[in-house]
Amino acid sequence: MKAPGIKTAIPQRRYKLGDFSVVVLGDIESDDGVDYRYVFATVQDGAQEPEFYVLSVRAPGVAGDFALRVLGRELDRELDVSGRWRDLDTFCDQAIALAQQVLSLGDEPPHRLM
Q1: Sheet containing 66-72: which strands, arranged edge to edge?
Q2: Over the stretch 30-82, which tens digit does the pLDDT of each residue have?
Q3: What single DSSP character describes residue 111?
Q4: CA distance 39 to 43
């Protein structure tokens, strides 16, 4: 699976979502040429590496807008482009909903840890 090329980042939020730990990163410096605003990464308990990401990345050629992307084992899609994805709360709410859907977590409530 392709993963974001993160060199440095600052955790903005942490959640527990079912048997997954989630970290939301911001202030990201990457080495893959992508301008990340936020990265939502899920790691299943007992695993070493994230298996699902939701990304807010600067949309090329569209001033002030960010693309909402998802990355998984067999998933790499851009879902939307909007200025909404620059807001941390809006991004986290959507990323949690996507993780619940893609990871088959149903109504598993997120527990914010940080």
Answers
A1: 75-82, 66-72, 52-58, 36-44, 20-30, 6-17, 110-112
A2: 999 999 999 999 999 999 999 999 999 999 877 889 999 999 988 999 999 99
A3: E
A4: 13
